[in-house]
Specification:
246 residues, alpha+beta, Protocatechuate 3,4-Dioxygenase, subunit A, 2 domains, 4-stranded mixed beta sheet, 5 helices, 15% helix, globular
């Protein structure tokens, strides 16, 4: 009808969108983080058996500290299988290990890095050595990082052995070169909770906790895994490792 104007709201500008404070849970996003999300870096959950990659992505933007170098120890075997499930059917509390590899200088994710991990089984035994000499594969494996810098493994919560706190060995290769050798650790409180259940509870009490391990005391706090138990009863351990490419 004449004399009546149709009202039309203007679409919000990018500046207006960024001016709004986005909230995820209780975390307020900065303008830079909002830009990343508007640019397409927000991702959805990986499913019931994993953590959402958003947590790892956030960690990569704020935590690209150089991962501490630590001894590879006596149980390394080169040429591990390229695989995600490294359990070989051995018992233990199921654990998903999520390792995010980023450039310590630029904080950018590193694609196609080879991540090796190896650790003791629930009984504190390494494959290829001692009581585990009959097999050279259980609790060992390699994964390539994806475009977001993520390598993921299915394993079990490691057991303890005499003289060491509970840990996972890790080695990162970029373009055929070893750029990081380290060890990953669990909080004592988490290990205590896991070890109250079988098969861990059938063993004696571990003899070394984190602060009693001299290797842990040499940078181990910077290699503590963030561990949560999901609704499927799987422990999900995550860490961001900053490395130099060469």
């Amino acid at each position: 009808m004449r004399g009546r104007k149709r009202s039309r709201s203007s679409p919000p500008t990018l500046r207006a969108l960024l001016g709004r404070v986005a909230t995820v849970g209780v975390v307020q996003l900065t303008r830079r983080e909002s830009l990343l999300r508007l640019g397409g870096f927000a991702v959805t959950a990986l499913g019931a058996r994993g953590l959402s990659f958003a947590q790892a992505s956030d960690a990569a933007t704020v935590s690209c500290i150089l991962a501490p170098e630590q001894t590879e120890g006596p149980y390394y075997i080169a040429g591990e299988k390229l695989r995600r499930n490294i359990t070989d059917g051995r018992p233990g509390a199921p654990l998903v290990l999520r390792a995010l590899v980023v450039d310590a200088t630029t904080c950018r994710a590193i694609r196609n890095a080879a991540v090796d991990i190896w650790h003791a089984d629930a009984s504190g035994i390494y494959s290829g050595f001692g009581d585990g000499a009959a097999s050279r594969t259980f609790m060992r494996g390699t994964q390539r990082t994806n475009a977001k810098g993520l390598a993921q493994f299915r394993t079990v919560y490691p057991g303890w052995y005499q003289g060491r706190t509970v840990h996972v060995h890790v080695k990162v290769h970029v373009s055929g070169n070893v750029v990081h050798t380290g060890q990953l650790y669990f909080s004592d409180a988490m290990t205590d909770a896991v070890y109250r259940r079988a098969p861990y509870s059938a063993r004696a009490t571990r003899d070394v906790r984190n602060n009693g391990d001299p290797i842990y005391r040499s940078g181990g706090k910077r290699s503590l895994l963030s561990v949560k138990k999901n609704t499927a009863g799987v422990y999900v351990a995550s860490i961001t490792m900053g490395v130099h490419r060469s």
